[in-house]
From TrEMBL:
Protein name stated in the entry: Adenosine deaminase
Family: Belongs to the metallo-dependent hydrolases superfamily. Adenosine and AMP deaminases family. Adenosine deaminase subfamily.
Stretches assigned to the Adenosine deaminase domain: 18-358
An individual GO BP term: inosine biosynthetic process
Pfam families (alphabetical): A_deaminase
MF annotations from Gene Ontology: 2'-deoxyadenosine deaminase activity; adenosine deaminase activity; zinc ion binding
Signal peptide (residue range): none
Keywords: Hydrolase, Metal-binding, Nucleotide metabolism, Zinc
Reported function: Catalyzes the hydrolytic deamination of adenosine and 2-deoxyadenosine.
Enzyme Commission code(s) on record: 3.5.4.4
Free-text cofactor note: Binds 1 zinc ion per subunit.
Reaction equation(s) it catalyzes: 2'-deoxyadenosine + H2O + H(+) = 2'-deoxyinosine + NH4(+); adenosine + H2O + H(+) = inosine + NH4(+)
Residues given in the record as Zn(2+) binding sites: H23, H25, H212, D304
């Protein structure tokens, strides 16, 4: 009897692999054609292009700025068309469909409800319409033979002052598909400790949260997120590599913070191509992903913003395969890392690992 052996590590085969995604922004993942159609519907006339190809290119190039602040400016156009019930639910439905078509079997998708109040919706209504869209998209994906479990994280903007309110909103929706809380936005000048009240509330409610930290700003931000705020995971956290010195013979020495992050198995939501776009790292090949993976940090692979990055989970994994020579067992390990770090219950995580991820990778491993 002969065995087929491992499948080739092509983008098409990676698309077949069951993948788990922890860090993806709803307002960073719209289809360009949807941005155009929703803009026409709601009378938004400030889009920088009038056809899907040119608009997609514009987002990608404008986000490729080398600066997080300029990268974030591009969100004005997506947020502008996500102000109505239809806009929100359509974007959420398509997000679920697109992720499922890419082979994502588990996704935590985040967005900031406070940015979607311009047309008069309440925070609760914003979340309700978004969750309805996710549910519809997941139903369509199941019908198309690509089931996905999609849940939501609510983000508070770190420059604003609504984090406690958003934390409470998260807890209010905890049984309806919202599994955690986050803060995002420009990092420099807005340390996580500005939002201690929100994090403390989450902890009193036994509720999960992650914090964008160690992306545009370095170790102090990571230290605050862990030591003062008590974060469960690090959004990016890539700058933890600043606390690792690799000697001339290749021997790594970890500082106290890097050791703590590794010892406590604090998950790193790494987003390779986004980090290149915002200038956090020069290229995927120079990304500390591999250093961190080899040192057995709890690394996970993420998209951050599929529209701005012109990317997908499969494309991020392929970029890592090309840069670092990973095989299927590495991709499976990163996927299981993500699933173990997710904010759904422990038995639900195990079920996806045992019934979906392991059998799916076994086929590819041959
Ligand atoms: O990589 C990032 N770092 C910090 N903030 C981000 C990143 N990507 C998106 N957002 C911010 O999060 C908001 C809610 O989804 C987006 O509107 C954007 O301003
Ligand atoms: Zn992000």
């Amino acid at each position: 009897m002969s065995y087929p052996g491992p499948s080739a590590l092509t983008e098409e085969n990676i698309r077949q692999a069951p993948k788990a995604l922890l860090h993806d922004h709803l307002d960073g993942g719209l289809r360009p054609s949807t941005v155009l159609e929703l803009a026409a519907d709601c009378g938004y006339d400030e889009l920088p292009a009038d056809n899907p190809v040119a608009l997609g290119t514009w987002f990608h190039e404008a986000a490729d700025s080398g600066s997080l602040e300029r990268y974030l400016e591009t969100f004005a156009h997506t947020v502008a068309v996500m102000q109505t019930p239809d806009g929100l639910s359509r974007v959420a439905r398509e997000c679920a469909e697109d992720l499922a078509a890419d082979g994502v079997v588990y996704a935590e998708v985040r967005f900031a409800p406070e940015q979607h109040l311009d047309a008069g919706l309440t925070l609760d209504e914003v979340v309700e319409h978004t969750l309805a869209g996710f549910e519809e998209g997941a139903d369509n994906a199941t019908a198309a033979g690509k089931p996905i479990r999609i849940v939501c994280l609510l983000t508070a903007m770190r420059h604003a002052a609504r984090s406690r309110e958003i934390a409470e909103l998260t807890v209010r929706f905890r049984d309806r598909g919202v599994v955690g809380f986050d803060i995002a936005g420009a990092e420099a000048g807005y340390p996580p400790s500005r939002h201690l009240d929100a994090f403390e509330y989450m902890r009193t409610q036994n509720a999960h949260f992650t914090i964008h930290a160690g992306e545009a700003f370095g170790l102090p931000s990571i230290h605050e997120a862990i030591a003062f705020c008590g974060t469960d995971r690090l959004g990016h956290g890539v700058r933890i590599a600043d606390d690792i010195v690799v000697g001339p013979d290749g021997t790594p020495t970890l500082g106290l913070l890097a050791n703590y992050v590794r010892d406590k198995r604090i998950p790193l939501e790494l987003c390779p191509s986004s980090n290149v776009q915002t200038g956090a790292v020069p290229s995927v090949a120079e990304h500390p992903f591999d250093l961190l993976a080899r040192l057995r940090f709890r690394v996970t692979v993420n998209t951050d913003n599929r529209l701005m990055g012109d990317t997908s989970m499969s494309a991020e994994m392929l970029a890592l395969v090309e840069a670092f020579g990973y095989g299927w067992s590495d991709l499976e390990r990163f996927t299981i890392n993500a699933m173990k770090s997710s904010f759904i219950s422990f038995p639900e995580r195990l079920q996806i690992i045992d019934d979906v991820i392991k059998p799916g990778f076994a086929v590819l491993l041959g």
